[in-house]
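Researcher: Structure for this, please.
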Amino acid sequence: MTSELHHRSLVACAIGALAALSAASALPAQGAECAPIYASQLKLLKTPHHGYSVDSSAVGARLHQGQATTSESIMTGEAIYTLYKGSWRRSPASVEDMQKQEEENIKNAKSTCAVAGMESVNGEAATVYQVHSVTDFGTSDARQWVSKSRGLPLRTVMRLDAGGAMGKSIMVMHYDYSNVAAPAGVQ
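Model: Predicted structure, token format:
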């Protein structure tokens, strides 16, 4: 698998994993306890943010000389940008496309959620949720910290078992909502 294909696979897995936590409008009956998580992820899609993730999958480590795969993305509200090999690229997927895909994925997902406590992330009070999801991308168990005041995700730690060559991984994601703008020079 080429490095670029692996990067696209990781982006697809990340989007799919987030889809397992999103789209309040498509909330399945068995997942009513997940409403706050779905609402936070739906709000994330509409809120400019800068996302950072580290993925420990074995495939990524093989492609990166034993190192975990790191990635960055920026969502401005109108477009999505990803950092790849030191260069920013505009995603061909629109925010609307991403929302539609997440809504479809959640319709097919089996998720259970529970409040796991209250903690602070960078000085901001957050409710911690435990989420177990089964999607087309695999099975995941995640802890998600959602801002009590803003209703936006602040941090997610996800253990994903995608099976096959992708195997198991731990993905840690952080979200920053301050001073978000499209990367300079990217159209």
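Researcher: Any notable elements?
Model: The longest helix spans residues 3-19. The first strand starts at residue 49 and ends at 55.
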